[in-house]
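Box 3.1 A note on notation
Throughout this textbook, protein chains are presented in two layers. The first layer is the amino acid sequence; the second is a token string describing backbone geometry. Keep the layers aligned when reading.
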Amino acid sequence: MKLPVLLTVVSALLGAVATHAASAPRPPNIVVILTDDQGYADISFNPQHPKEVSTPHLDALARESVWFSQAYITGNVCSPTRAGLLTGRYQQRAGVYTAGEGGRGIAQTETIFPKFLKPAGYVSGAFGKWHLGLTVEQSPVGRGFDEWYGFLGRGAHDYLKLDDIEGSPMYRNGKPIKDEGYLTTRLTDETVAFIQKHKAQPFYVHLAYNAVHSPAQAPAADIARFKKQFPEITEARAILMAMLHHLDLGVGRVVDTLKKEGLWENTLLVFLTDNGGSKAMSAVNTPLRGAKQQNYEGGIRTPFIVSWPAAFKGGRTLDTPISSLDILPTALEAAGDALPTAKPLDGKSLLPLLTGKSSQHIDTFYWSEGGEAGGFAVRAGDWKLVQQRSQPKVELFNLAKDPAEATDLAPQNAAKVAELTKLYDTWLDQMAEPMDGVGKRVTSKAPGGAAKKSKADRKKKNATEP
């Protein structure tokens, strides 16, 4: 082939490659917003919210997105849910059953969200509460995030004192810093700056507000405003409403930034809470029974909002039960990444549900606190079996008929109790031993099953755990 002809061919090939690269669709930005201890009714999109609750920005997001009415998190406290969300696997596979275990960190052998997205060209940023380790090695930047602004510790941070480097520091990319301002607002500031900085490439944002977790702190003027407007509510409730106000403003600013930067249409955004609302903070979980630290619906069901305007229409409610484990596989499918095979995910992509291609999803969900007095729950279809921590009694509910879990059907449904107990026991066999060394099963056998001796479990090593 003569040189001029060869150059023409090469030029044509390079032009074709460049044209394909230019026309290849950019994968969506991914934004996960996780709030802390927010009550199920502490969002005014819930028609049963108390009159003092007003979250206009969250409501607007919910109205233009898809609302899942039966969405779950995998823990009834903070860090277990976070471990499950970031790995896409039941956190018990990594030995995380309690907040104390999760607070020590996830094993380095577990791959978490940002590392899955890195091959697809994503830049990732984590903002806010971590609660998955106490060292820089276990921090977001140690686990694969490119940028990080937030705090470590056991789950809480002062909202007003951000300059305590020696006691409870804020961090930027692994280094303690002094800062100032109201923490909820600062987390929003940093998230907005990250989005603006990286708008030219696909990004993943993990925005974990510590609001509305204790300590109960908000600007005095906002507390006074709620007390004046609603004189009948308690001081604690007024503070919570002020905290919720700033949380709502923050979510609104993130959404507005995405829209102003022309990124909204191609952004997959998920909003949820880490567990049910906390009684200690005067949260409200109406119409659900229970609260944080319980396996009733009020402890494990979450407001769950999903938006991606370029891929599916909003303004809908889906009643299909789902869980926080589904977020990672949804993001991977959206990004065009393959699902891992060495350690398969327990969640399932929500895109078939969201796009209308399927109405089928996972229909069995599990919760376990481990230990000799640990509680558990299993939901299969409409039926849910619950055993609360330190309680020998198991309860059975039909959630389709009784979402408030008011009527225990266990006494007259022994066969169903046994069926769900067997499902739970089989699932628990596949989970790792708790990190703290106690058995993963309760010591005494509850009615209908649900127990092998924890002493035996201490000796048993789960060699099949992937």
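The longest strand covers residues 29-35. Residues 235-260 form the longest helix (26 residues).
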